[in-house]
Amino acid sequence: MASSPVDMAVVLSTYNGEKYLEAQLDSLLAQTDSNFRLVLRDDGSTDQTLRLLQHKRSQFPYVQWVDAKENLGAKLSFACLVEAALEDPNVNYVMFCDQDDVWHPDKVSRSKREIQLLEKELGMHTPLLVHGDLQVVDADLRQLSSSFVHYQHLDPTQTSLSRMLTQNVVTGCTMIINRRLAELACPIPPQAIMHDWWIAVVASAFGRIVFIHEASIDYRQHGSNTLGASAYTLPNQMYSTYKKKSISFLFEQAEAFRSQYGDRLPARQRDVVEQFIRLKTAPRFRKIKMVYRERFLKHGFLHNIGFLLKLMSIKD
């Protein structure tokens, strides 16, 4: 692959996305800063997604197509895309694009400006992640909420490692990361809950996470979303708690994180990971003490009630 003269890669994984993909691609073409390379991978679509991508790709000045031999799912498909983007030594930043959203015209320029300001402060060798808010819309782009973080009662400023191991507050389609973080986060293991959660945990442990309060995306909610947004209400949280029969995935991700980074973690961060993993097998009443001592908390009372109920249901 020949290197491109741009330092930004926008990675896009698609799967049966024909219904909304064109609007997303058009929003990328409408960016005020179009100096990026679009890195594409289709995860085995059986509709017209591939034909649409082939039709639109000529409108982008820089495109890299990543061949797909199997269906990997969103998490590992995006992992492949990040590794492919890093093959170009000119790429200093990576942004993540979902197939069914609509980007606001200044998303690329604003994201790049914010992360470059952060690099001036902390240096290019610091792993950095910048993310932002989203406008929640329905399938026809009618607004449901002007703020995703308010809609789900999240606090995006709470990004300590203890918090990030418990709940992700970083939405992947708003992220921009620098090359140092992209290199450090790879490979993304199968035990990662999602690619954005894994990258956010790595950033929390080794670098810095910064939140932009303004929304830069219309975050479309429809019946085929891999992950969606639901309002922070008692019925929704009760249903979410019931639906998730187990929270073992949290500990599987933490164990994979410990295995991958081991002694590279700063001492305090290593202790946080160890304490979190011990939480699974601790006696019931000790679990509560550990949760509050180490701040293994979610954001909001209802979120924490659901988390504690699931945690207490794990047998000693």
Mind explaining what this structure looks like?
It comes from Paenibacillus filicis. This is Glycosyltransferase family 2 protein. The protein is an alpha/beta fold and 316 residues long. The chain has two domains: 8-220, Spore Coat Polysaccharide Biosynthesis Protein SpsA, Chain A (Alpha-Beta Complex); 234-313, no CATH class. 44% of the residues lie in helices and 16% in strands. The chain has helices at 18-29, 49-57, 74-85, 107-122, 148-151, 161-166, 179-185, 195-206, 234-243, 248-261, 267-279, 284-294, 301-313; strands at residues 8-14, 37-42, 63-65, 93-97, 102-103, 128-137, 143-145, 176-178, 208-220. Strands 1, 2, 3, 4, 5, 6, 7, 8 and 9 form a nine-stranded mixed β-sheet that branches. Helix 1 packs parallel to helix 2 (49-57) and helix 7 (179-185) packs across helix 8. It is globular. The protein starts with 7 loop residues before the first strand and ends with a helix.
